[in-house]
């Protein structure tokens, strides 16, 4: 019973974000996120699954970048790890945030001053912006191709309608010729 009151006091002084993050790592499927082997950091292995399946269970959002901003507020360091998969892994580390050291979480304080993002964060963001710009350029090119296809199809439809009208006129033309010839004969016969 004494340990439960100690846990209650501990949770009152520890930021809820840190408690939820710690609890999340303890329960998260390891293919999505978990502690490193030495327990001194944690890794997000599948950003998409982390956003869609894990974050909403523990937080009011499912935005990975919001989660990272919160970590930064508490002084966590971030490193993007290259992995053999298509998607990269993300490692986060704080000297007082370790596996098996839940009681030490109350020593982690929120930063009070706003600081500039770390250089690696700016570089990472610039890479993300460049990737988004490239994707946007591809989408614009694809849109231009679709518009050109639509114009070609519209032109083909117009040409087809013109041909159909010509065919209708040609079909009507022989009867017009017969009628004109007949009327010419009638006029000629009347004059004689």
UniProtKB/TrEMBL annotation:
GO molecular function, one term: sequence-specific DNA binding
Pfam families: HSF_DNA-bind
InterPro entries: HSF_DNA-bd, WH-like_DNA-bd_sf, WH_DNA-bd_sf
Residue stretches making up the HSF-type DNA-binding domain: 13-111
GO CC list: nucleus
PANTHER family cross-referenced by the UniProt entry: HEAT SHOCK TRANSCRIPTION FACTOR (PTHR10015), HSF-TYPE DNA-BINDING DOMAIN-CONTAINING PROTEIN (PTHR10015:SF206)
Annotated keywords: Coiled coil, DNA-binding, Nucleus
Family label: Belongs to the HSF family.
Coiled coil: 129-156
SMART domains tied to this protein: HSF
Subcellular location, record wording: Nucleus
The protein's name: HSF-type DNA-binding domain-containing protein
């Amino acid at each position: 019973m004494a340990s439960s009151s100690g846990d209650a006091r501990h949770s009152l002084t520890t930021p809820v974000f840190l408690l939820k993050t710690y609890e999340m790592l303890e329960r998260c499927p390891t293919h999505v996120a978990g502690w490193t082997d030495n327990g001194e950091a944690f890794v997000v292995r599948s950003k998409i699954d982390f956003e869609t399946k894990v974050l909403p269970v523990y937080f009011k959002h499912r935005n990975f970048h919001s989660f990272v901003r919160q970590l930064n507020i508490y002084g966590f360091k971030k490193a993007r790890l290259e992995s053999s998969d298509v998607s990269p892994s993300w490692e986060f580390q704080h000297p007082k945030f370790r596996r098996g050291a839940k009681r030490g979480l109350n020593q982690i304080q929120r930063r009070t001053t706003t600081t500039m993002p770390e250089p690696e964060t700016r570089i990472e963001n610039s890479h993300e912006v460049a990737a988004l710009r490239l994707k946007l350029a591809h989408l614009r090119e694809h849109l231009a191709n679709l518009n050109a296809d639509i114009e070609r199809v519209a032109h083909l439809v117009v040409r087809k309608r013109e041909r159909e009208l010509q065919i209708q006129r040609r079909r009507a033309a022989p009867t017009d010729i017969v009628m004109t010839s007949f009327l010419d004969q009638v006029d000629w016969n009347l004059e004689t």
